[in-house]
Design a protein that fits this description.
By secondary structure, the protein is an all-beta fold. It has a domain at 24-64. It is built from no helices and four strands. The protein has a two-stranded antiparallel sheet. It has a two-stranded antiparallel ribbon with strand order 3-4. Strand 3 (37-46) and strand 4 form a beta hairpin. The protein is extended and about 50 Å long.
Length: 64
Amino acid sequence: MFNKDLLIQCNKPKFKGQHKKPAPPPTIVNKEEEYEVEEIKKYRKQDREIQYLMHWKSYRNKYN
């Protein structure tokens, strides 16, 4: 539960640099979402598996 009286109205961005484009939609292949990797930034071994930090093509860094 949340008290609606505590909500405040969001202000629209005032400057051009504050407007951000939404992430592009994924490609659909065989009814499944598919993304393209632009770069593998880092990797590490966690227990018996390898984990990767990837940069997705056409996406901003916050989606890595």
